[in-house]
Amino acid sequence: MNYDSLPNQYRYKKVEQEISRHIEAGDLVPGDRLPSLRQMSRSLQLSISTVNHAYEELEKRGLIESRPRSGYYVRSEFRPIPTPEINIPRHIEPRTVTKNKLIQTALETVGNKDLLPLGVVCPSKELLPARQLAKIMNSVIRENPYETAGYEMIPGNLDLRRQIAFRSVDCGSNLTADKLLITTGAMEALYISLRTLTRPGDLVLIQSPSYYCFLQLVENLGLRAIEIPSCPERGINPDRVDEITRTFDIRACIFSPNFNNPDGSLTSDARKKEIVEILAARKIPLVEDDVYGEIYFGDTRPRTLKSFDRDGGVLLCSSFSKTIAPGYRIGWLAPGRYLDKALEIKATTNVSCVAPTQMAIARYLRETLYDRHLKKLRTAMKEQMADMRTEIGLSFPEGTRVTNPTGGSVLWVELPEKVDGVDLFFRAREEGIGIVPGVVFSSQDLFSNYIRLSSGSPMTDELRSGLRRLGELAALQGGSATHS
Amino acid sequence: MNYDSLPNQYRYKKVEQEISRHIEAGDLVPGDRLPSLRQMSRSLQLSISTVNHAYEELEKRGLIESRPRSGYYVRSEFRPIPTPEINIPRHIEPRTVTKNKLIQTALETVGNKDLLPLGVVCPSKELLPARQLAKIMNSVIRENPYETAGYEMIPGNLDLRRQIAFRSVDCGSNLTADKLLITTGAMEALYISLRTLTRPGDLVLIQSPSYYCFLQLVENLGLRAIEIPSCPERGINPDRVDEITRTFDIRACIFSPNFNNPDGSLTSDARKKEIVEILAARKIPLVEDDVYGEIYFGDTRPRTLKSFDRDGGVLLCSSFSKTIAPGYRIGWLAPGRYLDKALEIKATTNVSCVAPTQMAIARYLRETLYDRHLKKLRTAMKEQMADMRTEIGLSFPEGTRVTNPTGGSVLWVELPEKVDGVDLFFRAREEGIGIVPGVVFSSQDLFSNYIRLSSGSPMTDELRSGLRRLGELAALQGGSATHS
Fold first, then answer.
1. Which pTM was predicted?
2. I need a labelling partner for B180 at 20 to 30 A (CA). Which of A156, B24, B160, B197 fits?
3. Which of B370, B396, B426 corresponds to the end of one domain?
């Protein structure tokens, strides 16, 4: 770590975060003695007062404790949290999805600014390039008062499609502008895909857990879903895909290989290739959700399923909602061989997308501001997730387990078996804390003691107390005391 | 007519338009002598040179001719055009709608700036308040960089819903903000309504002719349609609605009582009331399209079907696309008793609408700019429609008939029986003229010799030559010479 690049006042913060991550990862276990201020100051080449500031903050957070005349120690109440190993019954039956009402209730928190932002998945406003984008939007509007007021083409603004196509080289998708369709967010891309591929009564294959809006869409379109387990550490297993598509008449698959919402799982590129080949051989179309693809914490962007597509059977859905501006509602669909039908569905749903927001995002991309922004965003998201895991480790009851994703912006928390996630959701909401209960991420009776937490916001005192309170509420239900 | 309010250079234009309207209405018939320049100048209190300018323009357009030493006469080639009386077979069968491909081709002209704007229904850019709106958008963005980038609530921006509710008093709808849902244009409102009310295989009742995007949506949702004739002069006949809803199991009606696209028909308020009562008694929901409701040429705004709704069975769809900015894609849905289901469909289609455009339109409405703009727009649209009817009378082959709507912005043209509208559509497109062939406005084999022309643009020399060329193309097909 190079501390010189940081302004003075943030250096202690950095030290604090690094130590808490070591503790959380189990490198430092409860009872371990921390290096003395002097040692630490020497090895990090930072002033003693900076290190002291960091230690004080860690003590305030309850992670370490000072013992008189002895130094600082990792507090014994802290337990590292393992990744949940989800057990899913092997006998999987097609299900009619029926959790609509509960999902609707959870969705009502979208855009509700009174709730602590642990429910809605989107970076907090300080992390979005809102001011830059506002400037660009103003130029676009000023320079094109008529064009911004008039209809866009049905497939969407050509400049924007070109920019998206150009950028798609990074993830191996190699899209072209004429094969792209701009949509009102990735949700609309998914909706268009399913309307294009299925009819009511059809069977679709999804991951379990899956984003609840996908399940709700599946229900609303009168489809039936089969779920295959998504493993937080390895994502989708091609053998299971092979097994199920051999047994059932699957009309479409919906997979999120890159940081699946909610379990944050990443499916390896080798597995992706295998999955695409299995489905291509059986002529089963594959709808890919890649909204978190750009938020990777490692060195390289994970590839898309689309990048292994040879016959246009993969329909890639993505958006800028998790990286630039959710309110602009700009997503896209690369529908492969289903382009004509997809355009028909788009035209009869809402004709075309909003003109000025498309033009603004196109210019934002052209000015190469996006890559610099993404770099900062990735760093922030990675840190926030680590900070949240630390807090959960401190505040949540014995038996809690949490995922450790390598990208995305959600944590999937398994609470002790006695805790009811739905009950916790309602109790938390009463206290102004927005979370999402685990049951809505499956059409089966799974994940009743799970919750999903968004890690889109930097750790603040407010957020920290919210998390602690959440831990207390969970502990009250689970019958055991909290650790903070 | 008060000419004093007009700048000097436009007075002749006004005289020209008034005379051409008299000719077109049959007040002046071919061979009639026009008042002398001196007489006209005296009676209108305008200079002789102004009147002379007007007469010269009328002569250039081929409407009148000067006979040496005798004065100006209405040219004998001009024929007033009666309104078509559409004959629809009384034996109506439910149909699976199947004109998708042709409609798709027609739709490809949306946003195509290379075509003469006779195809797409939307006011030309000079008639939209684009500069005012751009200013407002700029303030909104500057003052709210974060809010405009963030998610809006699923039902839409509250300010905007309040403004729409407030304005709904005019058309008798009496909406409230909590019963409204903002949509991506009226098309999305219609789509949400049909997804809310129907399942594939269901039967819906529509007007004939009907807007082709409605038919395409009906086809895409796997619905079957029954058509009842829409009379250009009286709109929908409640007796036919009564008859058909007694005979068939109709799941929803889709009606455009105010200036139906394409025939421009207005259903009277008395008939509206009757229709709503018939359907309420049979518990059949009614989807109302009111996008042209504000573009009336008479003294008062026609009421909505919704204004007669007592039990929430009417789903009102509308937008600002025909009056403020189609590119902003702001529409709304008042779904009556189906609100919950409609919100569910909205959330799973694209979560919520674009934030900054909603905020800008809300402010535009709050600043009371809309009423002043609408007044100007109505006047312009009325004049343009009259000018177009005149040109059609001059240029189109013998046997052509055209509607005379009291609002809206389309003309429905019946060509001689031998003319094939689809063939004319393709030939016109080759020459850069965008029109829509009549057959796409019905699921039955009707209107093959009809075309729809948008009257959204002021008459220019370019538009005039386009219309003349269109008349020539029609005459070539019909086997008779044009009159110009």
1. 0.83
2. A156
3. B370
